[in-house]
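Before drawing any conclusions, I looked closely at one protein, both as residues and as discrete backbone shape codes, quoted below without any editing:
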Amino acid sequence: MLKKNPIMFSLHFLALFLLFLDHANPQPHDQEQAILLRLKQHWQNPSSLDRWTPSSSSHCTWPGVACTNNSITQLLLDNKNIPGTIPPFISDLKNLEVLNFSNNSIIGKFPEVVYNFSKLEILDLSQNYFVGTIPDGIDSLSRLSYLNLCANNFTGNIPAAIGRIPELRTLYLHNNLFNGTFPAEIGKLSKLEELYMAHNGFLPSKLPSSFTQLKKLRVLWMSEANLIGEIPQMIGEMVALEHLDLSMNELTGSIPNGLFMLKNLKVLFLYKNLLSGQIPQVVEALNSIVIDLSQNNLTGTIPVDFGKLDKLSGLSLFLNQLSGKIPESIGRLPALKEFRLFSNNLSGPIPPDLGRYSSLEGFQVASNRLTGNLPEYLCHGGSLTGVVAFDNKLGGELPKSLENCNSLLTVRISNNAFFGNIPVGLWTALNLQQLMISDNLFTGELPNEVSTSLSLLEISNNKFSGSISIEGNSWRNLVVFKASNNQFTGTIPLELTALPNLTVLLLDKNQLTGALPSDIISWKSLTTLNLSQNQLSGQIPEEIATLPHLLELDLSENQFSGQIPPQLGLLRPTYLNLSSNHLVGKIPAEYENAAYSSSFLNNPGICASRPLQYLKVCFSRPQKSSKTSIPLLALILSALITAFLLALLFAFIIIRVHWKRNHRSDSEWKFINFHRLNFTESNILSGLTESNLIGSGGSGKVYRVAANGSSVVAVKRIWNNRPLEKKLEKEFLAEVEILSTIRHLNIVKLLCCAVSDNSKLLVYEYLMNHSLDQWLHTARRSNSASASVNHHTGLAKWALRHMQEGKTIVDALDEEITEPCYVDEMSNVFLLGVFCTSEVPSARPHMKEVLQILHGRNHPLVYGAKNNGSEYDSTPLLKNSKRERQSESDSTLASDN
């Protein structure tokens, strides 16, 4: 039968084959359902997955699950409030083609488990809390056409493997924390249509020229991506490009000419870069909708070809250095809504047809050098929200189209030469919030009613006149009212004091009269009040002190009189000026400081309770009888005189005691003689006069004293800071006694000393016309010493050389004291001195060793070495007294006999 009907045979075979595939590829129904239930449990059973229950129908009907041939191929779990991580067992869903976890609260690193989905075409992990880097191996998803990782916290580099996903059409990596590099291999994605890498902290990088090979790319968004360098010139070959956003980078150089030749280009954002040069003058991108080249360094003129862009709705060229005129053809663009050219060097008139053929919404041409009038048809379409044209050279009257322009929110035309009256309808424009028309030549009067939405009104430096009259509640939302330097007259209306939201009120330099209303307690928000240079009179109302936020108060150059309210001291203004009025009395005590010294100038009746710059001191006369004040004054004067006399007496006593201490009589000196003297103490003390002074220093003075008419001595007087203690005095006398026993040709003989409470005297032999330096280094004396020791500075080296050669050093000893009993002792002391002055510090003996040698407890036998012999194996080098030396000599003679 089957052989006779081959068609039936083929159908039967196909059915068997499909049945086989159905059992071979798809996972068992129960296994996939179990995986989904495990996922739900892993995510702590979010309420968005409540319908995932085993008792329900097939899992293919569960929310977020789509199946093909009874197997899960799509897991669409976006915006399900899923927390936690993506578990590894999700990879058991082998047939997934679409995986969407966007807009959840998933954490952790990039889930590498998704690399197991070999059939995956769409992967969306956007708007979660993933961290770390994108691991290599992402190119294993060879079928992937859509990859969205935006709005996470990924860091590091974008892996080059992304450039090896051949089917990729959409790549969203924007709004992450990438801080490495992006690969040029992305330029090999020949099917790529959308590339978003904006708002990342990449390392400074140039825009790869390989990106210009993306011929199918429609959208390139790399704003705030740390791009540097120039825009590749080949960018004009990206023929499919519709949206190019390279804004907020540091791109330099000029705009490539080919960029405005792209036929499909609709949106061009190059704002906030460092681009320079001219805007390409040939423009063929006729489909352009928005062009924003603002905040660069562009020069030259605005291309006339911009007038051909009939679809253009937004043109932003502000904050550049463009010059020349605005092409008139731009004013006739039918779709133009936003026109922003402020802060350039543009000149000439504004295109007169601007707003006539389009529903213009934003008009900003401030800070240029434009002349002429504002275009008449600005609000012709009824959609204008703002007119910003301040700081130009515009003039004439305001256009009539602004009179009934209820769409207006802001009018800022200050610092021009406009004149005439403000259109009545402009004051009351339904949605008008800001009207800033200062520094013009406007005339007329303020209206009784304004727009109820008006919060900021600045009309200073014009020629408005008449009185300020406010009616109804139309002014109730006013926050700032600046009307300085006009010609307003009349009084300050009471209604003006009832504006609860007012923070700044400037009415200075007008002709206002009358008193300042006291009913101002509703000005609770007021921070600045300036009514100076008017003709206001009366007293300053104390209610001003109740304004809690007042920081600046200027009422100067008026005719205010009376006293300053003491309550005003409760305020702590940063600026206060009440000068040039007729105020009298004492200023509040809180203002008696340098910060407010200039706040009360030219008020002759003003004073302060204490001396202040520019203010006189108040002298108040008590109302009581002078019978009580005169005795009190006398008592105070007597007390002051008594205190002065006591202080004078105390000073006299101190001076007298000090003088006596410094001028003691001779009987208070204690003299100690070391030799037989031929002069007396009085000879020394009487010679301590300034006429005998021969030298002075930090510790005392030296006098030349003729002691007894023939002999002359040198007396050094050393001052004490305080009287000597007995212990210190004994130590001083002991040291001086030792000094007196020294006998040497180069040391002046100390004859005696004297001690008192305040000073000490040292009496020496007088060496006439000589000094120690001259004696040591210049003078020549004849003696019996060897010629080799004429220069004392080489004595130590000479002695060392003699000692090393085994020679005696007796030649260096004084003949007058060279006796046999002293030669050895003197030689040893001399050699000890040689040791102590060794050129090698390590060879010098310690002080303890020196003392042991001097007391006979050690003996240096070899130069540079130390004897370790017995403690008492040598004779002491120094004897304690002459008697000891004599006894030793006698014993030596006796032993010889």
Observations:
- DSSP finds eleven helices and 52 strands in the chain.
- The mean pLDDT is 84.
- The longest helix spans residues 626-662.
